[in-house]
Amino acid sequence: MIVSNTTSAERGIRSSALTRSTEPATDTVRAARKGRARTSPLGLVMLAPALALLVAFFFAPVVLTTIFSFTNMTSATGISGGAYVITPNLLRDLEWQGMAPEAAQSLSGETISVDEAALERAAAAGVDPDFLEEIEDELLGDEFDDARSFERELKTLPSRPRRVRDLKLAAEPFSQSILNTRFATRDEAATAIASIAPDLSAEDRNTVLSAAYTGWVWTTDNFERLATTPETARLITNTALYVGFTLSLFNVGLGLFLAIAIFYMPKTSGTIFSVLWLLPRITPVVLYTVMWKWFTWDDGFLPVVAENLGLPAFNYMKGSVPTAWATIVSLNGFIGASFGMILFSGALRAIPQQQLWASEVDGASRWQQVRRIILPQLRWPILFVTCYQSLSLLSSYEQIWLTTNGGPGNTTNVWALEAFRVALSNYTGNLQYGYGAAMALVLVVAGLALSIIFLRLFRFNELVEKPKIEF
Amino acid sequence: MPIQLQDFTKRFDNTTVIERMNLEVHDGEMLALLGPSGCGKSTTLLAISGIHRVNGGQILFGEEDVSEQPSQKRNVGVVFQNYALYPHMTAYQNIAFPLEVRGMGREQIDKEVRAIAALVHIEQYLERRPGQLSGGQQQRVALARALVRKPGVLLLDEPLANLDAKLRLEMRSEIRRIQQETGITAILVTHDQVEAMSMCDRIAIMNEGQIIQIDTPTEMYRNPKTQFVAGFLGNPPIAFVNGRASGEAIRLDADEVTLPLPTGARRPKDGEPIVVGIRPEIFGVNGGSPIGGRVSFVETQGRENLYDVALPSGAVLRSIQPVRHDISVGDQVTWGVNPDALMVFSQDGTRL
């Protein structure tokens, strides 16, 4: 409250007003503080939707991926719990893995006992009730070691079926084996094993039980498998080549070239030119890839042109490794180039015109102007495009999937496509969620590591500093 | 190097900004292109530097016609209004840039850069980037960059517009000193008459794409060719009063005041409407033809006071006088005008 040119009387009034107003002033401050405290929960409420979205769409997928990657989930195990089933195949596998043949033999044996449960099973299977009554009367509580001795006993009964086949059918419900039987819990399965094979060692029993579980379990096998499969090295090489070539040649290289070309063009033609380069980006991806198929397939545009020129003509998309690579890199590159072009164009327009004039007056040729004045000032957008596009390329597979699908052979397969196939689109039908999640997790970690490296490399902190130059 | 513009014409699309302009700048001279915004002075400068192409006429550097040469070949140094320093380079690299692009050796560059840095007094700031320099220092770097390859012509486009008042005063004399030490032909574009008058050997006043008058600052102040020039130069500005010629005298409109015609002026016809220009310093206590009026405003300037005197008709004259305490707003005064220093203009603005 600075007032000039006031008379002393006025000043007196004002100063007394000032002293009087000190108390209300502090009150106001206090009220303001209280007010701020009151509004802070409101701020959280306002932030809540964003936080919820963040959690739902950013953190949850990563957390779930991490969880899945430490399981052996497949479509065979399902994602809920499983049961215990011992199958002949399982026993054969265990034998291969070194279990004693006698142990396997004992597990695959059967017991025949005549009890209430067996009689019920037989009735349900449609065995003649008179016959069953006789069995109950004569044999209830008996046990037999094999089917032959049981059948011998049955043949002594008066109401027995005439045909041997019917007799065997009637005997079947009394025979019990743990093979192919579903046990809901480990204990049930253990009891059953103990009753059928009492001589089985505890160690063997545990091995069998673990192997017999049909649900998913926690495991680090996925990562071991990734680390040891020779396919991993090829996928990494392919992904690095794909990202490297697309990024350097197209997303940054072509983007820069286009932006600079447009910058030096007259305005109208520049606008038309830049809109043309946006077309691959705005075309739906399926349509776009179909067009590339027409473009590169046996009777497509390029092979036809090549044939007329006397050049080798074949299905460029899938016919050879170099052309397949050229196809997927340029196909992706043309989509990504427009992003860099727009970003670089904006950054170019932000360079003051007089700076460019100054460089011309200083004697710089156009190339020197680009090289010495323009490019150094595009460092930040180049970093941004590199960082952003390498991350999006790392995780993109749909264009490759829709065109070469990793072929010919597996030569253009990349990490993200393999993860997608393993987890979600397996030809044999057994989708390996756990293994796929492990591959995806590797991708996430690689992306994070790359981001950190990029930010360090381009000295991000310096770049986002407040500019000190006044224009 | 002398510069000559012959019938220079510049159009943007279909708008003619400058039509057949002629201008001659002598060797080693510093000339101001002075005029209000939009008068075409910057356009002229950019055409001389080669950034704008000419649409007609010729630009001569010495004997050589450079009209069709690109700016890279003209060997001109330009200082832009915002200095246009390259923000990603240090001051040293900025100054070295013109030498590097022509492929000069590293040692030679170093020698030249340090020499020019000494001339503009920025030796201690060479390793800083433009962002770390003050406005005045940036200005000096821009000057050094413009001068380092010894151009034939130095062009300054409103070089002081972005500086605060104190720095402006300092850089005014600095630029003049550097220009005189290097002996370079320089053109200064400005809309500030004080800059033009204090820094330059000659001033070319421009309006609407035309040069109205070229003269030394003193001569232009004393003998403006038109009412526009008289009104543009002088601070506080000249006062204009309408009147009519009446024999050897001038009758001011609606006021019972008669002034004698200044000697040397062309005699207007009787009854012809004319405009009388009275500068503040020729209206005051030192005799001459008396004019009476009421003091309507007093502006304190420290050493002097500026008095606005309202004539009965409502026209306002200005008088600048050493500070005095006997006059205050509302006082009736009768002060004299030095009739020989009066300027008389015809209705269309030309000096009589």
Please render the helix and strand layout as text:
The complex is a heterodimer of chains A (471) and B (352).
Chain A: H1 8-69, E1 84-85, H2 88-96, H3 101-108, E2 111-113, H4 116-124, H5 129-139, E3 143-144, H6 147-155, H7 164-171, E4 175-176, E5 182-183, H8 186-196, H9 202-212, H10 221-228, H11 230-263, H12 267-282, H13 285-296, H14 301-308, H15 321-350, H16 353-361, H17 366-377, H18 379-394, H19 398-402, H20 415-424, H21 433-457, H22 460-463
Antiparallel strand pairs in A: 1-5, 2-3, 2-4
Chain B: E1 3-12, E2 15-25, E3 30-34, H1 41-49, E4 56-61, E5 64-65, H2 71-74, E6 76-79, H3 91-100, H4 106-119, H5 135-147, E7 153-157, H6 165-182, E8 185-190, H7 193-199, E9 202-207, E10 210-215, H8 217-222, H9 227-232, E11 239-246, E12 249-252, E13 258-260, E14 273-278, E15 283-284, E16 289-300, E17 304-310, E18 316-322, E19 332-337, E20 343-346
Parallel strand pairs in B: 3-8, 3-9, 6-7, 7-8
Antiparallel strand pairs in B: 1-2, 1-4, 4-5, 9-10, 11-12, 11-14, 12-13, 14-20, 15-19, 16-17, 16-19, 17-18
Helix pairs in contact in B: 3-4, 3-5, 4-5, 5-6
Strand content of chain A: under 5%
Q: From the 3D coordinates, which CATH architecture of the largest domain in chain B would you assign? A: 3-Layer(aba) Sandwich
What's the order of the H and E elements of chain B? EEEHEEHEHHHEHEHEEHHEEEEEEEEEE
Radius of gyration of chain B: 24 Å
> Which architecture of the largest domain in chain A would the CATH scheme give at its second level?
Orthogonal Bundle
In CATH, the topology of the largest domain in chain B is named Rossmann fold
Cα-to-Cα separation, first versus last residue of chain A: 34 Å
The share of residues in helices of chain B is 10-25%
Mean pLDDT of chain A: 81
**Tertiary shape of chain B:** elongated
Sheet of most strands of chain B: 6 strands, mixed
Number of strands of chain A: 5
Low-confidence stretches of chain B: none
- Structural class by SSE content of chain A: mainly alpha
Q: What is the CA-atom radius of gyration of chain A, in angstroms?
A: 38 Å
- In CATH terms, the superfamily of the largest domain in chain A is MetI-like
Can you tell me the CATH topology of the largest domain in chain A? MetI-like fold
Number of domains of chain B: 2
Q: Which pair of protein chains has the largest interface, and what are the residue counts?
A: A-B, 23 and 32 residues
